[in-house]
Amino acid sequence: MRKTTYSDGRDTQTENFEPRKARCTKDRELKKQNEKKSFISEVGNTLIYIAIALAIFLLIRHFLFVPVSVDGDSMYPTLHDKDRLILNKIEKPNRFDIIVFPAPSNPEEPILSGKQYIKRVIGLPGDELMVVDETLYVNGEEVKETYLESVKENLVPGEILTDDFTLASVAGVEEVPEDSYFVMGDNRTNSLDSRVFGFIDETTVSGTTDIRIWPLKHFGKLNE
C-alpha cells in the first residue's frame, strides 16, 4: 500500500498495484504450472488405461482365446502348415470340431514330446465308430464327412484315403470311453492320430478352433 498526504493534512491509503509486466509474467508462470499439472494428469490416466487394457488382454489370452500355429500337413486340405488360428478355451468340443491338445507320450517318437496336436473330433464318449469303404459310421448310422469331399474328388482310381477300421481293431474297445475323444487328421494318409495313439482325455484338450487369422487371404471361419 502507498500513503498519500494532501495539502489540508488528510492522509489516505491507495492500493499499490503491480506493474503490468510483472502481472503478465506471473500469469504466464501460473498457466505453465497448470499446463504441467494437466499434462502429468493426462499421462497418469493414459498409463492407467494402458495397464487396464493389458490386464484384460492377458486375462483373455490366458483364459479365453489364444493364437496357435499349425505345424505340419496332417489337417490338409482344411489347414495348411504355418496357418495361424484362434484357440477358443471355453467351448466344449462337439463332433467334427477341430481341437488342440498335447501330443500323447510316444517312446518311439520322443521328439514329439511337448508339441501340440491339431486334429478333428470324430468320436464322442459312448460312440461306436467304424469306417467301411471310405464311409464313416457312427453308432451304426452313416455320417457324411463334407470336409473330405475335395480330397476324395482328387483320388486316383484305386487310391484309398481312409483305410477300413473299427474301434475294436484300433483301440481294443467297442465304444469311445467316458470323458474321451477319438480324433483323426483330415489328411488321413499322413496323420498320426487316435488310430495310432488311442483316445484323447477331455481334460487334456487345450481348446477348439474354427477361425483362421493367417494367411490373410484365408482369413475367416474354417470350412466356409
TrEMBL record:
Gene3D superfamilies: Umud Fragment, subunit A. It is found in: Cell membrane; Membrane. Residues 1-20 are annotated as: Disordered. Its EC number is 3.4.21.89. It is a single-pass type II membrane protein. One of its GO terms (biological process) is signal peptide processing. GO terms for cellular component: plasma membrane. GO terms for molecular function: serine-type endopeptidase activity; signal peptidase activity. Pfam families: Peptidase_S26. NCBIfam families: sigpep_I_bact. This is Signal peptidase I. It comes from Carnobacterium iners.
